[in-house]
Specification:
- This protein has eleven helices and four strands.
- It is an alpha/beta fold.
- The chain has a four-stranded parallel sheet, sandwiched between helices.
- It has one domain: Uracil-DNA glycosylase-like domain (Uracil-DNA Glycosylase, subunit E, 3-Layer(aba) Sandwich), CATH 3.40.470.10.
- The chain binds iron/sulfur cluster.
- Iron/sulfur cluster binds next to helix 7.
């Protein structure tokens, strides 16, 4: 006697009654994993006790981005606007990359993921404090795997270089930038585009004549501008 609904019995009889319908096997609509993570990140208060203002994480990311910019942490102006690199350093960085604001702020093409997402405060000796250490530890291992299309990461300043290059980093930032060919095309170590580095830029003219043309060519290729 045939057991009703039994798979073996149905197969033996050549029936497909036991097979789930097409409607039943369809997976639920995919929820982009990045969106909930970004919401969680934007609500982060993990190191609030150590920040001068209420946390305001500044980040730009979408799953399709092919270029990622990894800087230090927002300054006061970016903290106020909530827009990454919305300052003179950002203007210089865009010139270095060869992109305008429209492209730069297109999250579908450019991810901006700093080492610290909130303004860390001011150093007693002048300048901003380093990015909060716990920030990248907390968020980067969760965020970066959700940006699978990223092909090139621009490492702006020593903290980003230490995190991404690890022991491959040279003794000084200048030596690391000078060795850019060792890291390209995946990584592009740069000095910070702050006016504080004007003297460094003057002392190292090869940065503008050798590094930037190669960087712009790669950025143009990744962003479909060439
Ligand atoms: S700096 Fe980073 S860890 Fe601290 S509150 Fe902001 S997002 Fe969270």
């Amino acid at each position: 006697m045939r057991k009703p609904g039994g798979l073996a019995g149905a197969a033996a009889c050549g029936e497909d009654a036991a097979m789930p319908s097409r409607k039943q096997v369809l997976p639920p609509p995919a929820v982009p994993a990045l969106d909930p993570l970004l919401a969680e990140l934007r609500a982060c208060r993990a190191c609030a006790a150590f920040l001068p203002f209420a946390p305001r994480p500044v980040v730009q990311a979408a799953a399709g981005a092919r270029l990622m910019l990894c800087g230090q942490a927002p300054g006061t102006r970016v903290h106020q606007s909530g827009i990454p690199f919305d300052d003179r350093s950002g203007d210089r960085l865009r010139a270095w990359l060869g992109v305008g604001r429209e492209t730069f702020y297109d999250a579908a093409r450019v991810a901006i993921v700093p080492m610290g997402f909130c303004y860390p405060g001011r150093h007693a000796r002048g300048g901003d404090l380093p990015p909060r250490r716990e920030c990248a530890t907390l968020w980067h291992p969760r965020l970066l795997p959700l940006l699978p299309k990223v092909e090139a990461i621009v490492l702006i300043g020593q903290y980003a270089q230490a995190w991404h290059l690890g022991h491959r980093r040279k003794k000084t930032l200048g030596e690391t930038v000078a060795a850019w060919r060792d890291y390209a095309p995946r990584y592009w170590p740069l000095p910070h585009p702050s006016w504080r580095n004007d003297a460094w830029l003057k002392r190292h003219p090869w940065f503008e004549t050798e590094v930037l043309p190669a960087l712009r060519a790669e950025v143009g290729r990744l962003l479909g501008m060439v």
